[in-house]
Sequence to fold (712 residues):
Amino acid sequence: MNAHTPVSGAGAIYIPADGPDRYCGADMGAATPRMAEGPVKQAIELGRNRLLVAGALFILGFSAIGVRLVDVSLMSQGAEPRLPNTSAAASTRMERADIVDRNGAVLATSLTTASLFADPRDVLDADGAATLLAEVMPGLNAAEVALKLRLKDRRFIWIRRNLTPRQQVEINRLGIPGLYFQRTERRVYPHGRMTAHFLGYTDVDNKGLAGVEAFFDNDLRGRRRPLQLSIDLGVQHILREELAAAVKRHRAIGASGMVMDVSTGEIVAMASLPDYDPNQPMNVRKEARFNRNTLGVFEMGSTFKIFTTAMALEFGAARLDDLYDTRRPLKVASFTIRDYHPAGRDLSVSEIFVESSNIGSARLAMDVGVKAHKYFLREIGMFDRAPIELPESARPLVPQNWREINTMTIAFGHGIAVTPLQLVAGVSAIANGGLLRAPTLIRQDAGVVNPGKRVVSAKTSAQMRGLLRRVVTESTGRKAKAPGFRVGGKTGTAEKLKSGRYQHGKLLSSFVAVFPMDNPRYVVHVAVDEPKSADGNRKHVTGGWVAAPVAGSIIRRTGLKLGVQPVLIEDDRNKKGFAPLQKVRAQGGAEIAASQESKGAAE
Amino acid sequence: MRRPGIFFWTVAVFAAGASLFYMKHRVQSLEAELGKVDRKLAAEQETLHVLRAEWAYLTRPGRLVKLNKKHLGLVTPKPEQLSGFDAVPPRKAHEDATPAGLANREGAR
Fold:
C-alpha cells in the first residue's frame, strides 16, 4: 500500500494509486504519487489559504465570545447594576437634605407622606365619590371635587396632598375606583416659629421660597448629607424667649435679636418678632414673614457712635482725653442737635462716648471730615448689603447727596438706615481687634481661620473695648450687666422716621453688647420696636431701659453655654447674693476641718 | 479509546447542566432574599428618619424647659459655681495621687 506514502513539502498533494477511474485526478497520468502542478496547484493553494484564514477568524470570534462569556457570568462586576440594590438606594433617598444646627439637632427634615390623586376616567360616580371623600377629609369642598372628577378629558387631578396615615387608611377602605396614592415628601420644621426667619419655608412642591431653604435650594436637592448651620438651638431658644418677654412687657410692635461670634462671623442665634409657623407658611401676615435682622433698615441712633469714635481715634483726629464743647445745642442751618442728658460742660472724647453726647459726636465727626467719614463707613460695610446666606438681605439707605449736615447727624446714627446685621458685623470688627468678617449662617470648621479685612488698628480696638465696658459699668448700659461675663456695649434710642418726619414717642430702642470685654467672643444685638413704658415712667423707653436688660439677661443665661469662662471681677463681687471664690474655699476648708475633728472625737 | 472519551464528556455535560440549574436556582432564591432584606432595610431607614424627626420635635428646648421644671428643677449654673484650673491648689510633692496611692493611704488609715 504505497498509496499511504506520505508526501512531504508544502503544496504537495496526495493522489491515491489504486483504481484509475475512482479518484478525482486519475485521468491525469501515471498511478504513482506525484506533485500537482500548474493552475490546479494554485487553485488548491488558494482554497487552503482561504480555509486557514476563515478558520482563524472563527477561532478568534469564538474565543472572544468565550472570554466575554466568562467575564460577564463569572466576574460579575458588569456595568449593569443589580436590581435589588438600585431599588433600595432609590427608596431611602429623600428629595431634599436635612438642615441641622451646629450641634446636629434637626431643624428641617422631609417626611414621606401619601398624596391623593384621581384619574377622572376611572371614576364611576363623581358626586358619590366626592361626598365620601369630604366625610373622611374635613375641609374638603365636596362640590369642587365633584366638578374636578367630571373632567373626563384629564387623566390626573390632585385631590389632597400630604394625607395623614389615618386618612390614607380610611380612603383605602372606601374602595372608590379611580383614586390613587402618590408617595410625596413634606418639609417639616420640628421647632416651628423659633427657627422660622432664617430657615424660611418651601412650597407644596418642596421648592425653597425664603431663608436658607431658598438660598441653598439647589444644593439641598442635590446633597445627601445634612446642611449644618452655625445656629445653636439652645441659644436661639433663649434669645427668642427673652425677646418675646420684652415685647410683652413693653407692648412693642416687634423686636429683633442676634448673637454673632466675632472671630468667625458665625451667627449663633437670630430671631425676629412677630414670627410665623413655617409648617403652615401660606396664610401668614406679611409683617410676620419680615426678618427685621436682615430686611429691616433702621436709623440705629447712638449705637452708631461706636463707629464715629473708632473712626476719630483711628484717623488720629482726636485722642481719648481731648475736650469738646458740648455746653450748648449745636445749630446747623435749620437743624438743632441736642443732647438727651445735657452735660453743661466740656466733655472729653471718652465722656462723649460713655455719656452718649450727640453734640460731641457731631463735632468729632466734623473733625474727621466728610470724605474720611464716608470712606470709613464704606470700609466697615455700612454702604453695602450685608453678605449672608439669605435671599432676604436689604440694601441700606444712604443719603444720595452727602453734605456736612449728613456727617453730623450720621455721627449719632440718624440720616442713615442700615440693617441690624450690618451693625452687628461692624461692631464685631471694632471689638475683635479690628478685623471685619462677613457674617455667615453656615458652621465654620474649627481649624480654619477667617482672615477678615482690617478696618481699624488693634490699638483703636483696645481703646474702644475700654469705652464699651465703661458704658455698662458706669453709664446708660448698666442694666446689661451679667456677673462674670464682663459685658460692654452701647445703647441706642432712635425716633422712627415715617414719610420724612420723625415721630415723637415712636422709638426703636436697641442695645449692642460685646462680651467678654477683655477678649471679645460674641456680639449680642437687641432692638425693640415702639416700646411703651412698663413702669409708668414715660422716660423709661430708651435703649438703656428696654433693650439693655434683655441683652444682659441673654448673656447671663447663655454665657456658659457659649463656652465663656466667667471671671468674677471687683465691681461684680459687690452684688448681693454672691459669695467670692476665696470665701467658698475657706468654707470648704472649715468643713473639712470640722469633719476631721468629729472623726477624731469618734475615735 | 473512544468510548471513555464519549462517556467522560456525556457525564461532564450532565454535571455542568445540573450544577448550572442548581446554581441558578440558588442565585434566584438568594436574590429574592436580598431584595427582601433591602426592602426591610429601606423601611427601617425610613422609620429611623421619622424617629429622628420625632426626636427633634420631642427635644424642643421649650418642652425640655417645661419638663425640667416639672421633674428636675435644674437651674442655670451661676458663674461663681465655675472655676479654672488655676484655682486648684498645687499638689504637694510627696503626695501620691494615683489610684493605687490613694488606695494605699485609705488602707493605712
User: Anything to note?
Assistant: Confidence is low (pLDDT under 50) at residues 5-12, 84-91, 572-603 of chain A. The radius of gyration of chain A is 42 Å. The longest helix of chain A spans residues 38-73. Residues 576-603 of chain A form one domain.
